[in-house]
Write a structure and sequence with these properties.
Aspartate Aminotransferase, domain 1; Aspartate Aminotransferase, domain 2; seven-stranded mixed beta sheet; three-stranded antiparallel beta sheet; 17 helices; 16 strands; binds ligand F0G
Length: 463
């Protein structure tokens, strides 16, 4: 492997405040995992050493953001902090109607409950789990059509988050454009390896949507990370800054949904923006019923202030370079050890192919879940399965219909862990490599009807 690829970058920040981490033993972790029903979502965070469960809301804010917190205007209506946030988001998206929400899924619920309903169809490169759940909850159908190249998780191509344009045309013909509630472009494509979407693909989707009169929604919670890839991989855009690329891409959409807990660089927050006035009125009515008045949504003034600052900071070229390279550092080193990782490495996370790594565990015994448990037991590392626990369904005989992939995601919180934390994670994988032959599968002992991975209970098969 090219030595340069394995090189990392020094963090372009220094640490001003620290949060101690508890060092635990494997015996202790065996007990805590059992008490959590073998579901790492149900662990207490104090029992986790390196938390790679999500990059959502887990980032560290900057000194500028913390000082913005002190300037938050907590007025119920028309707060200064709202004006600040609204102007930043208008400039970024080019959209006139901006709604603040407490997080991404609140924006999803508002928009998709208005657009959805029985007989409606949503088409996406890949729906994230809360996106799919909010759509299916309205009785509508959610169809994923990621490009064919993405199905080979080793092929080295630049934009494996793209949607399959031919299938998009076919599906619109098949269901008829009036039945298509929206095409949702998830940027970067989280559930499909965190892979980026090209500007060319987005422009082609815009054209198809225009031809058929279909709404185009951009789920852009990682829009800055995607812009980094566009700048470096799509020649026509290498002269534009990351922020300029994001603006051009967001301008293509009719609506934009953002969980600000990612590239907003805040711990809580969301956004819904739309171009159409009539749609904005419907959304605002829903917002007031469930989230709050239109100038704060579910957010306090200080949250909005920090978000307005975060949305500018995230496009800093040194930050974005460090961000993407430090994720790649973990992925490239894992690959060098022989761990099957989804390739190339995406923006916010490294995805491991657990079906390959734990090849002796059948899919109906959840190899991804087994790896998640082993990483916790061996190193106190917490991560998440994106496979048949998250997306599996049952047929009429109660047999598992597995997900397309059995992945495990190691998501990297923004500006939180240093390179030595990541080197520790790499060391733990040496232990994992020693036990792959002996690794054991799991069965589900309890599950709720929606989003089961959050609260399901498990047991090792051979307990
Ligand atoms: N869309 C995408 C692409 C997401 O990744 C998420 C959240 C959401 C919508 C929902 O936003 O959590 O603020 O309500 N992803 C997190 C994750 C949870 O871990 O990937 P939310």
């Amino acid at each position: 492997m090219d030595k340069n690829r394995l090189r990392t970058l020094t963090e372009p920040f220094k640490i001003k405040m620290v949060e101690p981490l508890k060092v635990t033993t494997e015996n202790y972790r065996e007990k805590t995992l059992k008490e959590a029903g073998y579901n790492t979502f149900l662990l207490k965070s104090k029992d986790v050493f390196i938390d790679l469960l999500t990059d959502s809301g887990t980032g560290a804010m900057s000194d500028k953001q913390w000082s913005g917190i002190m300037m938050g205007d907590e007025s119920y209506a028309g707060a200064r902090s709202w004006e600040h946030l609204e102007s930043v988001v208008k400039e970024l998206t080019g959209m006139p109607y901006i709604l603040p929400t407490h997080q991404g899924r609140a924006a999803e619920r508002i928009l998709y409950s208005i657009l959805g309903g029985k007989d409606k169809v949503f088409i996406s490169n890949t729906h994230f789990d809360t996106t799919r759940a909010n759509i299916e909850y309205t009785g509508a159908m959610a169809i994923d059509i990621v490009c064919e190249e993405a199905k080979d998780n080793q092929i080295d191509l630049p934009f494996k988050g793209n949607i399959d344009l031919l299938k998009l045309e076919e599906l619109i013909q098949q269901y008829g454009s009036v039945s298509i509630a929206a095409v949702i472009m998830t940027v970067t494509n989280n559930s499909s390896g965190g892979q980026p979407v090209s500007m060319a693909n987005m422009k082609a989707v815009r054209k198809i949507c225009d031809n058929h009169g279909v709404l185009m929604v951009i789920d852009g919670c990682r829009i800055a990370e995607n812009s980094y890839f566009v700048h470096h991989r799509e020649k026509e855009y290498s002269h534009l800054t990351y922020e300029e690329i994001a603006k051009e891409m967001l301008n293509l959409g009719d609506a934009f949904i953002m969980s600000a807990k990612k590239d907003g660089l805040v711990n809580m927050g969301g956004l819904l923006t739309v171009k159409d006035e009539a749609l904005s009125v419907k959304c605002k009515n829903m917002l007031i019923i469930s989230e709050g008045f239109t100038t704060y949504g579910g957010l306090s003034g200080r949250d909005m202030e920090a978000l307005a600052i975060g949305l500018k900071e995230v496009f800093d070229k040194d930050y974005l370079h460090y961000r993407i390279r430090s994720t790649a550092y973990l992925g490239e080193h894992l690959r060098a050890k022989g761990i099957p990782v989804v390739w190339p490495i995406g923006g916010h996370a490294v995805y491991i192919d657990a079906k390959k790594l734990y090849a002796n565990i059948p899919v109906n015994q959840y190899p991804g879940h087994a790896l998640v448990c082993d990483l916790y037991l061996k190193g106190g590392i917490r991560c998440v399965e994106i496979g048949s626990v998250m997306f599996g369904k049952y047929d009429e005989n109660g047999e598992l219909i597995p997900a397309a992939n059995e992945l495990v995601r190691l998501a990297i919180p923004r500006r939180v862990y240093t390179q030595s934390h990541i080197d520790f994670v790499l060391d733990v994988f040496d232990d994992i490599l020693e036990l792959t032959e002996k690794a054991e599968g799991y069965k589900i002992t309890y599950e709720p009807p929606f989003l089961r991975h959050f609260t399901a209970h498990f047991e090792p098969i051979n307990l």
